[in-house]
Amino acid sequence: QVRVVESGGGLVxxxxxxxxxCVASGSISSLNMMGWYRQASGKERELVARLFNGDTTNYADxxxxxxxISRGSAKNTVxxxxxxxxxxxxxxxxxxxRALHRGANTDYWGQGTQVTVxx
Length: 119
Hints:
By secondary structure, the chain is mainly β. Helix content is 0%, strand content 61%. It is built from no helices and eleven strands. The N and C termini lie far apart (40 Å).
């Protein structure tokens, strides 16, 4: 089992920056991906960015060039640096950790952190 905890959300004006942090604990030796998703009010959860073992990254087109996902000194920590924030980035941001559990990839989620961008 893996426990995921996010932090760093808040209220920021358009054009500002925020950094989100995520720490996974528990069975972290089997982690193979960590990432960020977001869910705006009335919308489905969507991928923001993810980071695989080996440092391959994926970004949503809407955040490319503005957001950066990175790993901390420990494999179980990831950050999401968000620059040039827009009101449409307002959402609850969830950290996702994927790990092998009983031979299958299993997704674990944090509780979410609210990011609000005012115009």
